Known about the structure:
Blueprint: H1 2-42, H2 49-62, H3 65-70, H4 78-81, H5 86-121, H6 133-164
Amino acid sequence: xxxxxxxxxxxxxxxxxxxxxxxxxxxxxxxxxxxxxxxxxxxxxxxxxxxxxxxxxxxxxxxxxxxxxxxxxxxxxxxxxxxxxxxxxxxxxxxxxxxxxxxxxxxxxxxxxxxxxxxxxxxxxxxxxxxxxxxxxxxxxxxxxxxxxxxxxxxxxxxxxxxxx
Length: 165
């Protein structure tokens, strides 16, 4: 069961990373480039440039988050955890996964809950007059799979701690 969930989250993490790397980042670069060029050359920036750039930055940040957690390539306090025993490091990992899991789980839940209201009311940006719910859906899915990955970490580290005692 855990292996199949692990494979599913790995596949989804790769899809989210690819979307961020090959769609969101290039789109962000093009929008910023065009916005700066128009602002500099014609003193006429894109009216929605800052808003869309901010939304794309959110996608660029949360899209790869699941694969970062999976590969343990996220920011860690190695200088602090290096002083702990192997068991202490596992407990620290367990605690950080638990705290992050609660926060990310609540954030994912809130995003999924708000999507139907966004669709119902046709929520758009201030200058960017297109529906925002697809971006919110991407964020909710990315957060959901990050939450699942953190829960898997809890199980894996918990098993390791259980075997040591």
